[in-house]
Amino acid sequence: MPNEELWKQLLALDASRTARRAKCQYTDDPPRYCLALLNSKYTVDLSAKKITADKDSSQAPFIEELCILAYLINAQNLPIADKLTPPQALPGGQFFFRGLHKLGTEELEKTFGPHPEQLYRAAKRFGAKKRKFGDASIELYILPRVPLTIVVWRADDQFPARASILFDQTAPAQLPLDALWAATNLTVKTLIKPAEKSD
Hints:
Blueprint: H1 4-11, H2 15-22, E1 25-28, E2 31-37, E3 40-45, E4 50-53, H3 62-74, E5 84-85, H4 93-96, H5 105-112, H6 118-123, E6 129-130, E7 136-143, E8 146-153, E9 162-168, H7 171-174, H8 177-198
Antiparallel strand pairs: 1-2, 2-3, 3-4, 5-9, 6-7, 7-8, 8-9
Helix pairs in contact: 1-3, 2-3, 3-8, 5-8
């Protein structure tokens, strides 16, 4: 089973404490967590070791499952620091977020650089709120304790488009870097899909 080791770790934890740490709901008949990933609700069935999307009861794909399991295992009951940090400034981030673990800023630049305002339309279904950075910027929650800020600068005759991905300073306490990378790139891919369809 994919993510078997993560399931093993989760099942060993106290469920009520896990729910408080992860800021989600837990019920024990049958034992399950309910939480949101990118503003969509998921059910984590502990007996069946299965995660399903509430909207259509479909099984969560590998990446969604990985992100949810890693979050439930690692999340901490901490307030948001409200201090934005680039990925390279996170502990270990300078060496991790490069090469194969590079974040999807190029995809954001390609999709939203010509028309940054499209970022707002693409992010609306995630309950994102506007921020006052660049030519367009948003803050959305990947998971209940993991906000993400995306900033886009418009391409023009003199400068190419630019995009930045920023984390709250508490992000590494909620997810290990590999899961944070996976969750962020999942967010980028989900954001650019509706924008690509409208082109």
